[in-house]
Structure formats: structure tokens, C-alpha cells
């Protein structure tokens, strides 16, 4: 194995690495370059220093979008993880004996279904569910005499509607992920604790949760990154591209609008740079804050 | 560097003058992430003659891209291309259609190998102002100066309705053919109105009195779709503003003149429409899409709908037998409106342009000349139920009740037909702001002062932004 070891390894790495360099690193490098220009998206450009960032700082819509991203960043992982943990616990050890509740194998498949649908399709479907007149699914189910709920057309609730869909779509995957994590916790630990008289709640908080910590950490980072995105849902579901009155505006939508609609590719790149650092900071912070010594299972 | 001089000619001139081309030149015409290979492509040209005024190479093929949307593509495949090939049998037309214009065309423009003639339209259209600024669109001066294909003794420009060339003119040079001619107004079901003996109002008092009656009949009197078509409402507000204070109001807005949005005409128009919103709006329509509201109108749940003359064709499949589209001019807002109640906003739209850096820009222009022939225009109107900018091409031909009604309104308006505004295509950012402001005005309380202030601020922000190319009109 000593001879030709490196060519062998390199042979495997060269294609994925090249793809990564061209389509990820290359794109990022160019984004940083373009963020310093006034490129419209067509033809030539000139370098304008940090003017784009200056403009961004003064742009009220940027701050609105950022605030919404932060809201999603906090609400979405918490709700998703809490629900996924609850469901996963029920599926794995919610039953009378050691196993999950009755029919847990079927539920596991059903929970995973939303994950199989493309996000765009989910958005279109929920656009109909949240329809703002009687043709919407929820409003259609309400009594005829009620005034329809506006959902996405109501600036107070529009972002919450988006949040609901984000959570609905994500929960299934994390149920499966946490189930797998819980499955790897040794049965004897539970048995020993149960013999000592621990209730299901105690089992969950004292045993399941600590032993699942690594998985939770990963889930939090993934969900956080998803919360920074939310583009497909906002683009398809929201009224008037992030409206009404910017109530569903997010950074990714701003990038899209500026790059592809407003012909301000340079400015959009500056937004991209900000989003890049936000995501990076978030991931680093999460991993650091939640770091714990691994508990041997 | 002028947008009409490509790098090739520039280098040739530089060489002729015995100069060495400076490196800066290549940078000017270069674009991000792509080399400049497009400019090294040989562009096809031929001898200019009376029969070939644009000097195309009769053997060189052309590539055209048509937007596959409300107008369909039949007019291109079944009318324009056969007509073009009748004259130029050896020039092969490579045709494709797309709904995603920017997604398919923008990379090709930036890579220097664009199609020769492009129909820039639809929800994924490209910012045409930016294309002109980047020198990607061919100057169409020679096309408009060339003789018309089948109207003897006139140049192409002379066969078009007033304002048609101007609509595609950027800083004094024409770059786009705005082919279809749209009449804007308030659309209603003629049969429903006849049944209830509702008469068409011309004053604001009559208009609101009628809205009251319609509301009493359990019908939403006036509506539009807030989710994706609020620019129909922008058009309504702007049309009223122009009627109050003439088209100059809109010109000032287009020219980003300070105070253009806070002037009295805009304020009065916004106040009038805000009042309509406050009294008669169905709040759930803010969350609906244009197809949904239009369908509701077809079901007689909505009485008036502000739209352009494409509406009838767009709704053809869902219009029931008891529904007959008709259009009325926006009523006067005040007794002292400067334009009469019959004044109409009608404008050329639907951009077709020849790419300047393609293989055969002259061929692309020749295709446009074919489209602007009387024969092609008439067939286009028959197929799409849309008028074209070729003046009088469809006169005397009965096409559909809605189009006839729009044509009548045009006739009644006489000289008082105005082009409207261009800020929505010039400054996409301002367009976005106006859509949101219109929604806020109509669905959220009708605060006219807020509408004017928001738009004034947005307009001045665009004016101050050096990265946005400015245009002016007069």
C-alpha cells in the first residue's frame, strides 16, 4: 500500500475537489470581487470600494430582512427540534414497553413524507392552504359567515405562515435523524434507570437528551442555515415578493431581487458577502456555545 | 465609448489611426467571469440595396427567441418566419421559445454569443435599460429609417403609431421594437351592466355612485390582485394623475424630478383611489393572484378591473357565454381635470430587439422589419387579439368585442392618447416600490400622503444611486 498511495488518494479526490473549487470556492471568490464593483449583471463594471456596503448599511429593507432572518433563526430550530424530539421519543420509547407507540413504524414513514416533496411544490400547496379568500383550504373549512383570515396578506401573520411551512417541511427529517440517534443508545441504560424508578420524563431529560447532544448540535446548525435561506417559500408564497409591506422580506429574497430584477449584481454580491459571514458566524457560535464533553454511550 | 461602437470597430479605427489599442479598451467591453470571445465572431453583412436596405447576408442564418406567454408563439412560427423566408429563402431561421427569458438569454449575452433577435418579455424578462447600457442591444436607427416591407413609400417608422419608436428609445437612440399596442382602461362585463342598466360613468361622482350600487348588489365593485399584479393599480393611479395634470406629471416622475410624486395631481389621484380602496376593497384580494381575480370577474363577483387590452385574450378559455368584455376610459377625478374624461393611456409594449454582439444583427433587424409589415401585423392581431404598433393594420377587421371596444375608446379619445410612464421599465427598484405603495394605499387604509411620501423617497433614492443608469424623456 505504500507505493502509489498518494496517486490513489488523489485520483479519488481530484474530481470532487475540482467541482468544489469551481462551483463553490470559485463562486464565493467572485462574489467577494463583485461586491466591490457596480456591476449591473450585464457588460462591464468599475470598482467602487466599499460603497455597496455603505449603501447596505443605509438600506432600511436590509435591516427588516435581517430581523426576519433572525426571527426565523431563533424560532424555526427551536420549534422544529422540540417537535422532532417529542415525536422521535414517542416513536422510540413512548410505548408501554421499551418500544415506541403503537404503529410507530408507519408514523415514521408518514413523518418523512414532506421531505420527499420538492420545496417549490410544498410552497405552492401551502399557498393554496393559506389562500386569503374562501377558495383557500383553511378559509374554505371555516363557517361561511366568517370573514376570511388573510394569512399571507396580513403583515402581522405572513411571516408566521412561512415559519409554519418551514417547520412542517423539516420536522420529518429530524424525527428520523433523532430516531436513529436514540436507536444507538444502549438499551441497558434505560433498563437500569427504569429499575431505579425513573419515569418516562426523567428518562428523556436525564438520558436521551444528553446522549443525543451531538446529533442535536448538528441539527441546530443545519436548521439555522435553512432559516437563513427560506428563499423558495418566500418567493413562491409571499404577496408581492416579500410583502405585504416587506413583512416576509428575507436576505435571500433581497439578493435575488437585486441580482436578477434590479440589475444590481454588485449590490446583491455585497448582500451575499454579509449572508456568508452571518452563516459562518452562526455555525461557529453554535458549535462553540453548545460544546460539551462527549458522554460515552 | 458609445454603445453602438463594438470593440471590433473600435480596434479597427484605433489601428487605422496608427494607435496601439490600450488595455483599458478590452476592460471596458469585458464582463465579469467571461472572456470577450463574442466580439471576435465575424458578423454577417451583405451589400445594401433598395431590396436589401439593411444590408443583410442573404445566405446567413438567424436565430430568434420568442417568449412563450400570453401571446403564444404561433405568430412567429406560422406568420413571421414564413414571410421572412419568402423574401430570404436561403437564410435559415433557427427558432426557439422560452418562458424563462433571463435565465436562458442572459448567460448567452454575457458569453458573447446571443441569439440575433430576442423577445424580452414575461415575468423573467431582462432589465432592458441595463442591456442598453451594456451595449448588448443593436441600434435600430437603420431599421426605422428603412422602407417598409409592404407599405409603399413609407419608412418603417412612418408606418407606426405615434410614440411607438419613442417607447424603445434610450437617450436619443432606438434600441427596441415595442410591437404590441396596448390600450389601458377599466374592464367590465357589458352584459352584466346592461342587465342591471348600469351606465358608464365619466365623472368621479357618477363612478362612486355606481360603485355603491354595485356593492349593494353584492358584487365587489372594483378590484385587482395584490399578490402579483399590483402594477395594474399603479397604472390606475398614474392614469388618473395624468388626467388631472396632463402627461407632464408622468414625465416628471420618469425623469426623477424632485417633488414629482408629491405634486397635487398625484396626491389627488392617490386620494381618490385610496378612498375607493377604503370603501369598496375586498381585503382578501391582496393575497390573490391575477388569474384568481380575473376569474372572479368572469363569474361576476368583481365588476371593474383595471387592465390592458390583453385581458380578453388571456381570459378567453375561462370567459363564459354570458360575459362580454368591454372597456371604458378612467373617469375624470375632478371637474378641473386638464385632460378630458375620454383621454386614454395606450402604449406600445412587448420588447423585441436585435442583439448587437450576435452573429447576424442585421438579419435580426430584417426579421423585425418583417414583423412590422402590414401583413404580419394583421395576422398577429388576428392570432393574439392584440393590436400592433403598425398603424391601422387591423382597421375594418372585426376581431372580438373587447378589442372593438378598446378600439372605439381610442377613437373617442382622438388626440388625447398618451403614452404613460416608463419608470417601471427604466428603474425596476422604483417599480417594486410603486407596487408595494399601491397595495398599501388600496388595501391598507388609503393614506394618500403616505403613498406620495414613500414614492418620493424611493424616487430620490434611485436618483442618488450612482450605480443605476439614468434615462430621461421629454
From TrEMBL, chain A:
Taxonomic path: Bacteria, Bacillati, Actinomycetota, Actinomycetes, Micromonosporales
UniProt similarity note: Belongs to the binding-protein-dependent transport system permease family.
All residue ranges annotated as the ABC transmembrane type-1 domain in the record: 66-286
Organism, as annotated: Actinoplanes ianthinogenes
Protein's name in the database: Sugar ABC transporter permease
InterPro entries (alphabetical): ABC_transporter_permease (IPR051393), MetI-like (IPR000515), MetI-like_sf (IPR035906)
Entry superkingdom: Bacteria
Location within or outside the cell: Cell membrane
Keywords, in A-Z order: Cell membrane, Membrane, Transmembrane, Transmembrane helix, Transport
Membrane topology: Multi-pass membrane protein
Record-linked SUPFAM superfamilies: MetI-like (SSF161098)
Record field: transmembrane: 7-29, 70-94, 106-127, 157-177, 219-238, 267-287
Automatic annotation (TrEMBL), chain B:
Record region (Disordered): 35-54
Residues spanning the signal sequence: 1-32
Lineage: superkingdom: Bacteria
Alphabetical list of Pfam families matching this protein: SBP_bac_1
Places the protein is found: Cell envelope
Keywords, comma-separated and alphabetical: Signal, Transport
Membership in a protein family: Belongs to the bacterial solute-binding protein 1 family.
Listed name of the protein: Carbohydrate ABC transporter, N-acetylglucosamine/diacetylchitobiose-binding protein
Native source organism of the sequence: Actinoplanes ianthinogenes
